[in-house]
Design brief:
The chain is an all-alpha fold. The protein contains 3 helices and no strands.
């Protein structure tokens, strides 16, 4: 998972530079990064990332959209 975290962090930085930090295109990368960090047991950091994912999903899809509800 350490290698995947490094890759997701790199991809996230590229996407944020290209799309912006609040664009919906970064949601899946953030989610994957959060999941990888969670697998390593860093609950605090993964929670922060998942909260950011939820905020982006709510802003893009709306609070009651099917994409947002499972989060």
């Amino acid at each position: 998972y350490i290698n995947s975290i490094e890759i997701y962090e790199r991809v996230l930085k590229l996407k944020e530079n290209y799309y912006g930090k609040d664009h919906n295109e970064i949601i899946s990368t953030l989610g994957n990064l959060g999941a990888s960090i969670l697998k390593l047991g860093d609950f605090h950091k993964s929670k922060e990332i998942f909260e950011r994912v939820l905020k982006l999903q709510e802003n893009y899809y709306g609070k009651d959209h099917i994409q947002t509800i499972p989060t």
